[in-house]
Amino acid sequence: MSIPIAFIFLLLLASVVAMLARRWKIPYTVALVVTGLSISVFREQFYPEVDLGLHLTPELLFVILLPILIYEAAFHFDLREFGIPSFWEMKSMSTSSNSFEITMVF
Is residue 11 in a domain? Predict the structure, then answer.
């Protein structure tokens, strides 16, 4: 299987996982991790000789994948779950803590 076909297959798989995660009401990122681990175990058990040349490097993880996951998590973050009723209260708490940290550093 060539890399473009594998990439398209993985995008389709991610779409299916997203639909199933929404239906089962589980976080999308958790469903993706479980799917990725399942694919990895399946490939190691049944096709150990197949290597597409796609490897997880620190650059790929920290520059491409992690910002996407953090953005998606922040987009669906609900402040009320943590007892913070409004954006302005969160902003004032972060501003005061940042001011304290800057004062302590200098």
Answer: yes
